[in-house]
Amino acid sequence: MLVLLLLLLALLCPSSSQRLDPSVFKPDAGSCYNISIPYPFGIIGNYSLGLEHLPSFGIICNGSGPMLPLPSGQYEVVDISLPQGTITILGRAVAWRCLDNFSGISLPPDQDLSLEGTPFTFSDMKNKFTVVGCDAMATIQGANGSYISGCAAFCVSKKTVVEGVCSGVGCCQAPIPRALKRLNLNFTSIRGQIGATQDVPWDPCSKAFLVKEDEYVFTYDDLISNMNNQNRTVVLEWSIGNQSCSEMDSKNGTECKANSHCYNSTNGIGYRCKCFDGFEGNPYLSPGCEDINECKGPNNPCVHPNRCKNTIGGSICKCPFGMSGDGTLRGTGCKKVELLEIILGVGLVMVLIVFALVLWTYWLLKKRRLARRKQRYFLQNGGVMLRQRISSQKALAKIFSSEELKKATNNYSEDRILGKGGYGTVYKGMLEDHTVVAIKKSKLVDETQIEQFINEVVILSQINHRNVVKLLGCCLETEVPLLVYEFIPNGNLFYHLHNDRLGSISWENRLRIAVETAIALAYLHSATQFPIIHRDVKSSNILLDENYTAKVADFGASRLVPYNQTHVTTLVQGTFGYLDPEYFQTSVLTEKSDVYSFGVVLVELLTRQKPISQDPTNDWKNLATHFITSVEHNQFLEMVDQTVLKEAGATHLNVVVQIALNCLSLKREDRPKMIDVLVELNALRRLLKQHMDDQTQEHHLEFYRKEKMAHTGSSSNLIKLDKDDDSMESHLLIDRNLSSLALE
């Protein structure tokens, strides 16, 4: 057998998987005999070290041109491509054998071609495995002798051979598999495989070689010539290291510099770097790839080169006026626009401009009208006066903008409504500082009482009492002013009393709520700079906080009583069922009107009945009237809630019923003051807490009656306003004779 000459044997240094070191070679060492040698390849300066010590990417530049050193020899370098990751070399890549006419043996034996241990791999996309002969079947085998790829060439006579085509007649070609580093060639006779006994064909020699794709052209002379001395180009692919991009990123990172990306080798292990589209340069050296100015040089992509604009990583082509298209050579180019198209285009642009101007003008006018309207409402609602009062009296009220409250309530969304009443709607809102508030949006406003309204806002904002919902401020930029209160989370007393799905409130809690409500009303009537008449006391205006402490709310209908006066004359306002009958008839409002309304709330607490009955089976409509009638006929026990009957006891029940009757007197002079009601309820609550037997309770009840008589007529001493408190925060002070009755 004949000896197979091998081109690419490699025994390179074991550091191929290590990081590149630009100091090994001079970065971008230039060229050798007009062949560019880009980094990571470099020109070896000292060849005397011996081939076994040379770097994997070393190139020798001597009188023979650039040579790639391999253990089997040096091979001329034709081209090195960084973007493609290839190196093209010249060498003898022919294996051949001839058949003897007598014995049929091949001479010489086959020999391997290997790239193992190197960063190089045979390119499966740029090389072809080629076999030439008339009785040849050649295969490529792996290291373990397994079949990988191959093809067969066969011909009977010279007449059957077609030059220029490797179709299997005299010549065949086959692709090679990926990641191939070893060529182990093996020849087989087609005639021998099929058991033919004919003589050896007229061309007994077969050749097999690897060659760059599209470079070899088959001729008849190749069948009879000696191809062993012919050099052919072979393309090798190279890669960095033996790990993928993701594996390198998780460690020290890849060698890819700026404006480049890492991609895994598709033909073996390792990775390569490539510049981004629109960039050029060496991705392995700092500062990395640089932007390509596509507008300069012969590669200008535009139909009209002078209308090319370079961008980072690309370019923009524009067509001259009167032409349309993308302006690129590979795209739609530039085409002349017809006159009609120009007119239509210009007309459309003008229409869009006019439409945009109209919209902008409309928006601007609308914004100005809205601003003027807000300013008009602000002045109309006494905004200037309120500002002056806030600055002069150090009031705590804040003036909110309409936009702030609109945003806080999500444009007054339906799902933010807390409740609706005769005078307006209450919304839950959240301010920008995340403070949760209740915003009341009233339905009506009396423009003739603006000054009175401002005075009330200033006074109410100064009230800081644990049983009164605090007024935080208002908004005057709307037609009807908006009031902003602190938010009370647990709803109102009406909901807890009349909701069948909720459990019944204990008598102790009902009495506590009554006492806390009385404290708030007594405070408003007696302990403020100007007495405040609530004018709409009802169970739905008694809110319960997170600790179920009662807080009187909704001062939208309240009025201030001028100094040294006991009443004011107003339009009748309030809620039917709670409304003072005498106030309804005379329009004269006093603090006793609140006492009457509180009496209705007491009856609600006793009976758990609504102030106006909607039940057609009831023979009554007004709870207060029905209660008075039932007491007169000694039938009120039939009205009392079962929970109260079980927990209150006859003594407590009789006392509360009597207090309610006194509050519901038709004549206001017969009604007690709220401070007197407070003293009675507070004493009764203390007795309830002592949990004594009936005799002990009777004893204390007698004590309670004596104390009540001792303090009747001097109740004004029970509440004191701290005149020196600039914040106007007042405290309910129980007289020392009743100090033992102080609330917990």
Protein model, in words:
The protein is of the alpha+beta class and 744 residues long. It folds into four domains: 1-238, no CATH class; 245-291, no CATH class; 380-486, 2-Layer Sandwich (Phosphorylase Kinase, domain 1), CATH 3.30.200; 493-741, Transferase(Phosphotransferase) domain 1 (Transferase(Phosphotransferase), domain 1, Orthogonal Bundle), CATH 1.10.510.10. It is built from 15 helices and 38 strands. The protein has a seven-stranded mixed beta sheet with strand order 3-4-5-6-7-18-11, with no helix packed on it. A six-stranded mixed beta sheet has the order 27-31-32-30-29-28, with helices on both faces. The model is unreliable at 1-18, 46-54, 101-111 and 711-744 (pLDDT under 50).
How many distinct beta strands?
38
Structural shape: elongated
CATH superfamily of the largest domain: Transferase(Phosphotransferase) domain 1
Q: Could you please say which CATH topology of the largest domain applies here? A: Transferase(Phosphotransferase), domain 1
Task: Give me the number of helical elements.
Answer: 15
In whole angstroms, the N-to-C terminal distance is 116 Å
User: CATH first level of the largest domain: which class?
Assistant: Mainly Alpha
Helix content: 25-40%
What strand order characterises the main sheet? 3-4-5-6-7-18-11
What's the CATH architecture of the largest domain?
Answer: Orthogonal Bundle
Secondary-structure class: alpha+beta
Subcellular location: Membrane
Membrane topology: Single-pass type I membrane protein
GO molecular function: ATP binding; calcium ion binding; polysaccharide binding; protein serine/threonine kinase activity
Organism: Rhynchospora pubera
